[in-house]
Amino acid sequence: MKKLGTYLKKAGLSHKAFGEAIGVKQATINRYVNGDRFPSQEIILKISQATAGEISPADWFSVENITPVAFDATIGGDRSLIE
């Protein structure tokens, strides 16, 4: 999530220090920032608390954080719903 990466830079926090603050490893924070992993509900709440709400639970569900799913005509469905 870009917003988390931006927050950490502005706050002068390393991924390692922030991870320790919320109980996850540096690699996990790296994955959140890069969009390679989605945090659990518990971690989303811890991130919100650790950032004083600057990264809110709703931020994780914003359009920029949703990975598009490719339409697969072989399994059926209505393509008009995604266009």
| Beta-strand share of residues | under 5%
Based on CA atoms alone, the radius of gyration comes out at 16 Å
So how many helices?
Answer: 4
Instruction: Kindly give the count of domains.
Output: 1
Q: Mind telling me which CATH architecture this is?
A: Orthogonal Bundle
Label the structural class. mainly alpha
Top-tier CATH class: Mainly Alpha
Tell me roughly what share of residues is in helical segments: 40-55%
Largest sheet: none
- CATH fourth-tier homologous superfamily: lambda repressor-like DNA-binding domains
Round the mean pLDDT to the nearest integer and report it: 84
Low-confidence stretches: none
Label the overall shape. Answer: globular
SSE succession: HHHH
Gap between N and C termini: 25 Å
Q: At the third CATH level, what is the topology name?
A: 434 Repressor (Amino-terminal Domain)
Query: What's the number of extended β-strand segments?
Result: 0
Write the layout of secondary structure elements.
Layout: H1 2-11, H2 15-22, H3 26-34, H4 41-50
Q: Would you give an account of this structure?
A:
By secondary structure, the protein is an all-alpha fold. The protein has one domain: lambda repressor-like DNA-binding domains (434 Repressor (Amino-terminal Domain), Orthogonal Bundle), CATH 1.10.260. It is 45% helix and 0% strand. The chain has four helices and no strands. Helix 2 (15-22) packs across helix 3 (26-34). The longest helix is centred in the first third of the chain and has 10 residues, at 2-11.
